[in-house]
Amino acid sequence: MRSVLIGAACAMLLAGRPCAVGAQQATAAQRDSIRADSARREAQRLKTVVVTGTRLTDVDERIPAQVEAIDLLHASPGPDASFRSLEQLPGVTLYNDQGSRLQPELEVRGFTISPIVGTPQGVSVFLDGVRINEPDAQEVNFDLLPMAAVDHAELVRGSQALFGRNSLGGALLFFTKRGTGTPSADVELSGGSFGQRVGTVSAGGVAHGIDGFVMASGSDEDGWRDATGARTRQVFATLGHRSQSGGADTSDVALSVLYAHDKIYEAGSLPESWIDINPRLNYTPGDFFAPDLVQLSLRGFRGAWGGVLRGTAYFRRNDIEQFNGNVPPPNTDAFIANRSGGGTVEWTRPVFLGTLPTALTIGGEYSRENVNFRLVNVETGVPDTVATLAVVHQDNAAAYAQAVVNITPRLSATVALREDYVHLPYRDELNPTNNGTSSYDRLSPFAGLTMRFSDDLRGFVAYKSAFRAPAPLELACASPDAPCALPSALGADPALKPVTTHDYEAGFDLDLPNHTSVDVDGFWTDVVNDIVFASPNLTAVYFVNIPRSRRAGIEMSAQTALPAGGRLFGSYSYVASTYQGTVQIATSDTNPEPVRPGDQFPSSPRHRGRAGIGFTRVVGSTAIDATFDVRAYSSQYLRGDEANRHPPIPGYAVSGLGLRADVSRYQVRLLVDNIFNSSYKTFGIIAQNSLGPPGSPPPTGNDVDGPLENFYSPAFPRSIVLSVSARF
């Protein structure tokens, strides 16, 4: 994004950078022009982008899908920027199982995207075209995303054949910055509630045809609850070269390197009786998550055979230590070594289908994912024992093709096919009799129509399908007769079936005068062989297929510009995530009942909404932006109450405020979340409280008996963050 100067004042407050303002004051006419331009740009930024493209490209308006640009401008600085931005979108909810600010779980159209090993994952995530779902369980570690280096991001909603495995509820795409124009450097420092401290430096530019960008960021926090501090460290760099002709890029190549090392202490959920005494308590203090990541990626494109050839190659190494305090003991210390590498190549060319102009894309991808599990039981007074020592060498291959056919100047049709093959051998190095191999393949189609009725109205209809093979961890923990005390005991259990979806979707977007836009999207997704986890007690789980489930709903958003630089925005979504068959799922409940058709999935509110107001003003040489919003969510059932027989977690509303001022090369931001310090819960599970009241002596041996109780994750109280940045 570029800064645009009108006279002496900056007209691009919303460009995400400190503004350059000269010594001379802007005139009244200039300030009015600035306000109008800022309001127009903000309305355009807020507007939903209902476009998408190929596996490796940006968007194409002709394709029938709902894609939304993610607002990174108003996100808080630091490693939470990704999910804080995502929760502003229609139909996206956030809940916190681990009690750590940096490890939330998000739900998109009823499918989960989570950093928690053991949560079935239904959304794929890409950084510059590289899949970053971890090989062991397909989880996504938001804290490892280099958000200070991200230029823009998009959420592609619904089943997505082109993006492959895990793209059931959608695909999340992040694209990093490149060096551009005159060399510059940025420094940002921020601090806030609960000991939050973030420092980031970045620099970029172009010299002798070579562009470069580098970023280093670190954060520390004490945490709100007991023993929930966190430390994150990141370094990201890109070096690239573009060739141009006639002002357009004709070829490009870029090499990126990412290193991240974090340590996050976790609290988990609390028995309701403990929350009544003190919601800051930690049920099993000492739990932590410590990843060490290195990722290298090479990407580029060039003209070839009358079209454009694009490619991405990568290597990714993530060594993770996850320590869990268990009740009763032993505790578990997991050491997971994830290694993955591979690449994607695609070729796009304009052709004619008869007399109809057509954009044809053909591509393929391959990756090798190696996972080493070493899980150790740790108990006071007892020598450590290795409970699991296993290796998985997984091969993933895919081929895909897409054609976008212009039937008329206003009507286009899109058809696509993707074939996936997954080969997953499990090798138990302690007990070879547990060895097993699973293979999966799936042909996923996509077809739809896009109609542009006028320059202001576009509609689309589509049928889509997607595929998810079971993750190695799910396959190794799929026996109800031997549930896993995650992550301490894996084996080659009965093979799970792959998950497939059949997704029907229709929507429209409408642009009206006064920078007003309305977007409406309806979807109906039937899921076959959904994978869910059953939890017979607080620390033991296993994974199981359920024959049929469904995600169906509607997502709506609207925004409009107001006089004097103001703006209004709002969204509402209805998402029904339901079981569509009768099945018994193990829980801690002593009197469990089977789920029946129409029962709602736990941790999934049906109603979600957001409304807000903002304004942009220029006062003298200072540009000011302010936003106030309220997010509201309906009730949701507890995990362990899949049959919906117990009172749900009550719905809640939470508000936020953002203030921003730009003057010269400096920028100041103030972000306040949960302004009114509301007390609410975002997650709950039914389990035995084996520890009893706070301060009771711990249980001994294998005693897991305890009163059945609702465990909750209390939401964070009011949080204030102040940041100051400068450009040089």
Structure description:
The longest helix is centred in the first third of the chain and has 19 residues, at 28-46. The protein has helices at residues 28-46, 81-86, 272-277, 472-475; strands at 5-6, 9-10, 67-69, 92-95, 105-108, 111-113, 123-127, 130-131, 150-157, 170-176, 184-192, 196-207, 210-221, 230-245, 248-265, 270-271, 288-304, 307-324, 331-353, 356-379, 382-406, 411-428, 436-454, 457-468, 499-512, 516-534, 542-562, 566-579, 607-619, 622-633, 652-663, 666-673, 681-688, 708-714, 719-727. A hairpin with a 3-residue loop joins strand 11 (184-192) and strand 12 (196-207). The chain is globular and about 75 Å long. 5% of the residues lie in helices and 55% in strands. With 728 residues, it is mainly beta. The strands form five sheets. The protein has a 22-stranded antiparallel barrel. It has a five-stranded mixed sheet with strand order 3-9-10-7-8, with no helix packed on it. The protein has four helices and 35 strands. It has a single domain (5-727), classed as Beta Barrel (Maltoporin, Chain A).
